[in-house]
Each structure stands twice: as structure tokens, then as C-alpha cells.
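ok so i was messing around last nite and threw this chain in just to see what happens. nothing serious, just curious
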Amino acid sequence: MIPWEQLETAQAPGGGVLTLHRRGDEHMIRIDGAELMSTRKHGSESTLSELALADVGQRPAPCVLIGGLGVGYTLAAALASCGPAAKVVQCELSDAVLRWNQELLGHHAGHPLRDARVHVELCDVVELIARARSEYDAIILDVDNGPDALTRPGNARLYRPGGLAEAHRALKKGGVLAIWSAAPDDAFTKALGKAGFEVRVTGAKGVRGRGVKHTLWLATK
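result:
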């Protein structure tokens, strides 16, 4: 088997070290040595966008917020699910992850950052959600491993009652909050309901049709 080659390193926002690796035509991003995202295991990220936008993506000019760029597949699937008048705000906290997508990874997902519908915000998605009021048709969050598997402590706010209330306020009526997780969490499902959402929980494989099954929450305002 071809060994992984480390290409670059960068400090992760909030602590830790991000590293970019290549093996053949595959790429992987790790944090402190642990796999964070890869170009091979992206099926559930694409499914997250497809399910979130199955209905609201067909609105005349939907406004979509995506938290977490990863290796671009969540964004690419969102663009494929929306019409030409859509606005897709891609929020990414790490300037290194953004640059790696622009320079080294973009071809894997079809260079979604080059789409004219995309508006990039280099900041914490928490900030955008907190100040929005009935602004988004969908908020798609793929920023961490789940409510109880955080790689960055600052992401905890997204999953707590206060953060869920902010997301509810940020969505338009009928808007969807879609969240990716490495594992199920019944307590979080209940928290979404208490925040005023109608909740659907489903699963998707990391590699289309096979591999580890991840958890997806689809919460409608």
C-alpha cells in the first residue's frame, strides 16, 4: 500500500495541529494525528446537504449557511441541490483549510469554491448564527464529530440550548438545521425538540453504501 505523505502543517484555531496528507490521489486532513476528513470518506457529508435541501433548496432564491468546509463535498452537494439564484455562505474557521481547498483539494469536489453563488466567511459559524434573524433557509453544520465528541471546545455552544435557540432564530419559517455527527445522541435529539424543532434522525455511510454509519439530524423550524 502506498504510504501517506505529509504535505503541510498549520495551527488549528483554538489549539492543536492540522496536517494535510496525500496518498496517490487521495487527501486527508488530520488534527493532532487523528483523521478529521478525507477525500475518500465523504458520503455522509454529501447526504447531509442533499437531505437538508431536498425541499428548501427548491425555493426561488434560498440562502444557505454551511459551517465547516472540510474537503468541499458538503458545499458541492449543497450547490447541486439549489438553483442559480441561491446564495450559499461557506463559513470556515481555519485559513489553512480554506487555502488547501483553493490550492490542493478543490478538484476532488469539482472546485465548489469557484461557484459564483458561494460567499466565503473566514470566521466562527457561531458568530454568523448568533446575529442572524430569519435569514437562512438552511443551516448545515459539519464542524465537529458530534455533541459529545468535540475536537474544539468552542464548538460546544452549537449543541447547547442557547446555541440551538440561536439557530432557530436564524432560520426562516420551514427552514432546516442539519447536523452531522460521528455517533447517535438521544439527549441531543430531545434538546432539538425542546428548542422548537421538528426532528428527524437518520444515518448515512461515510463511503457511499459501505463503511461506518454516521448520524444526521434534520431539524425543521
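not much to say yet. Helices lie at 43-52, 73-80, 95-105, 125-131, 156-159, 161-170, 186-194.
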